[in-house]
Structures are given as structure tokens and as C-alpha cells.
Amino acid sequence: MPSIFELPDDLLASLLESFPCRDAQIRALATLLYPRAAPCRNIVIHGTEATGKSAVTARLLEALSSPAAASASATGDAPPLLSYAIVKSVECVTARHLYERVVGQVANALRWEEEREKEGRGALGRCETVAALTVELTRMLKYDQPRERDSRFVLVFDDIDRQREAPPTLLPALARLSEIIPNLTTIFILTAPSPSLLRLSSAPQLYFPPYTKPEYVTILSRPPYAPRPSLPNTTPQETADLWARFAAAVHDALAKPASRSLPGLARACAALWPRFTAPVAAGTHRAREFTKLLVAARAYFQDESVLEPGITLANKGPVSAVAKAGEKEARSSNSSSKDLAVLLPPTARLLLIAAYLASHNAPRHDQTIFSTWHSGRRRRGGGGMGVAHHITKKAKHRKIARKLLGPGAFVLERMVAIYAATRREWLSDDNDAGDGQQPTVDGDVGMAIATLASLRLLVRVGGAGGAGDTMDRGGKWRVGVGWEVIRGVGRSMGVEVEEWLVE
Questions:
Q1: Going by C-beta distance under 8 Å and a sequence separation of 6 or more, which residues neighbour residue 296?
Q2: 168: which of 154, 193, 230, 395 is 20 to 30 A away, CA to CA?
Q3: 382-392 pLDDT, tens per residue?
Q4: pTM confidence score
């Protein structure tokens, strides 16, 4: 028979084997929960994601509430008992939902319905406040039977910091339930506790730190992560040694820079292992030639499609992650410009191009570029370029193209003037609107400007948070799209926007 403050080591042995590198946390938590050790009222368990907080707590409570734990701690006819209920706060929509979920979970753990039928107790009531929750828990947990006076009930709030619509006094109120119910222990599992979380100074806090590299390798070297069976033409020990070195290499390449968790690192190792060991299976390399294997498989560590096949398209041969990112960005830009060319009417597209020119051309160049529009002379294919070439003779010292710089602010009247000066040439009779139909310019310019502003293609600057009349002639605006998008919108109407930019 174990004495007081003695833990059931035989029950903890399997738990320590299932959760390596968490021995200290398991023994500390068992001491604070076990009825024959040092049970406390409130416990705060915190740590980053995927550090074993919830899994260790659930498995430990399952072990301590088993019949073997009750028989091991028996003292005569009054063995101390332990029951528990785990409430996942992320599954509760409101605080009231949380209260009723707690009552339901506790009732199921204690078989309250059966006790109510035998002893004629009242039915469970509605829980809309913490006071109602306290009443219901007191009815279920405050017993008078002698065999249950030394029992304890553990109530776990998992991810309580992610509870939606939680009142500011929720955690302090839940922490004081154990003051009213002496045999209750409340566990709060969260990510990062604040200094005044429970507004109590006596609640112990148990920290689950992130796994280190040696701990990652140790965990991944055990089932169910370790590869089975062994590689062809190699012994099980050689396969285990190669897997340990491989897991360390994957950690250095992926886990540390990406802050990858244990499940993510395990998935990465499982995806890369067949490709990494393909030369060993083919007989071209041996399992002991780790450096050669790493050099041969380094392309797979740079290929995003290996780890996340749903994000990038599969390509023939390994492609670097940087090249894939560039291709993805280019596809995104082309798709955005194509969508705008299809969705926006001609007037809105013309105003968007005019806004881009107003943002990237200096106002002093407007008269030179746009003042000859009324003469009827066609300047497409070089009209703007000649003017731009003449102007840039004095600006040859510029190192960065103006279209690559950030957009500048312009007044609304200037954008409308550019639109009025260019729309007849851009929407001529032989120039379609990009959809195979003859262009028809909508006269409601204000509606088009409001549409562009609502889509954040035009952004108002200055003033009180950018508020004000959208048709204020003196209001300042800035275009909200980049060069790739505006070039696609212009080409959908047969306009080369680059000819109208002053470099």
C-alpha cells in the first residue's frame, strides 16, 4: 500500500513511455492531481501549440481514474476516488454554451441521471450565468456519503483562452468554484497566461516548453514515427541510425526557420523519407553514406510540392522554392488583371488607368502629354513615347523606373481631366473594349469612381481617416493597384500604359 505523497509509478510507467521528454511535467501534474499526493484547487497548464499539454492531461487523468489506481490507493473501506471531465472551449460558441457543456460533461462523468432516478434528485437546470453553474455543480459534487468525502473531481477547461464571447471575469469566477466545492480541482489549459489570469496568487502553473532538437529526434525515433520495416540491404540498427540523422537534418532545414510543431515535422519526415532513401533502395548508395544521400536529395528540401502538394502545381523535376514563388506571384498578377478587365466596365477601367497616370506622372507634365488630344492626331504606338523621351533627357540620372516606385497622391479633378483628355483616343471606333463589343462610355463618372473606391482600387488619403465626399474636387486620392495589374487592364482595351508614363 503506497503511503501519502507516493505516486503510483506502475501506472505512470506506460504514460512516461508514451510521452517521452515529458517526465517532469507528468510527475508534477500527477502530484497535483493524485488524491494520495498533494491535490490542489486550481492548476494552470500553459505552453505553445503541439507541446503535449492536452494529450498528457487527458491520458494522466484516464490512468489516475482507472480501477487499478483506486485499488492501489485503497485504505480500508474508503479508497480515494478520482473522476474527471474535459471541456473543449473552442467547441463552445458562447459563455452560456460553455456553462451548459460543463454541466453535461460532469453529469455524464458522475452518472448523474442514474443517481437522480435512484434518489429522486431534481433535473438539471439551465445555466446562463456562473452563479447557476455553481448551483448545478454543487448539487452534483457536494456529497455527504462517507466513501466519497475523500474523492476528487477534476474539471479541465482546454483552450480556455480561445473561448468566444467570454466575459472578462470568466476565468476568476471559474477559479473560485473550488473554494465553494472542496473536492473540486480545476485545470486551465492555455497558451500564454497573463500575470492576473485568475486573480489568485496560489494557483500553481505548469509549463510545457517547446521541444528541443534532441527531444524531437528522440520522439521521432520511437513508434509510431520511426520507419518500419528497415531499408533493403541494411540492418534495423543502420536504418534507425540513418533515420535519427535524417530527422535532425529535416529539423535544421525546416523546423527551426518555420517554427514547425511536432506533427508538422513528423509529416515532413514521412514525406521526405522515401525520396531520401531511394538511392539506398536502388543500391547506388549505402545507409552509412549520409552526406552523399543528403547531397543527392537536397533538391527535395527546396521543393514545396513535396511537403504541400495542394499548394503548388506538380512540375517535372525538382524546382526551387524561390522559382515556384515567382511563378505563383506572376500567375496571381495575371489572374487579378484579367478579372478586373472582365468585371469592370469601360468607364471604370479608363478612370483606373487615369488614376495610375496621375499617381506616377508629375503634374507639370500633364499639359505636354494630354493637351493635343483635341487635334484629332493619332498618337498611339509612339505619341507618348516621343514626349517621354524628350522629357527624360533631363532625368537620365534616375536609377529606378517611375512605375516601380510607390504611387503618389493626386487631386480628384486632375484624374478626371486625364480621363476626359484620353477617353476619345483610347475608346476609338476601331478599338474594342476587350470583350468583342463596341465601346460605350457610361456618362456616370461619379458612379464609376464610387465603385473603384468601394473596391479599394482607389484609396482616399488625408482627412479624418480618409472619410469625406468621394466627389470632392479637391480631395486627394492614390491608386491602389500595381504595375502588373494596370498593364493588364490597359491591354484589355488596347492601351499601352507604358507609353503614357514619363520616365
A1: 279, 285
A2: 154
A3: 444 444 444 44
A4: 0.57
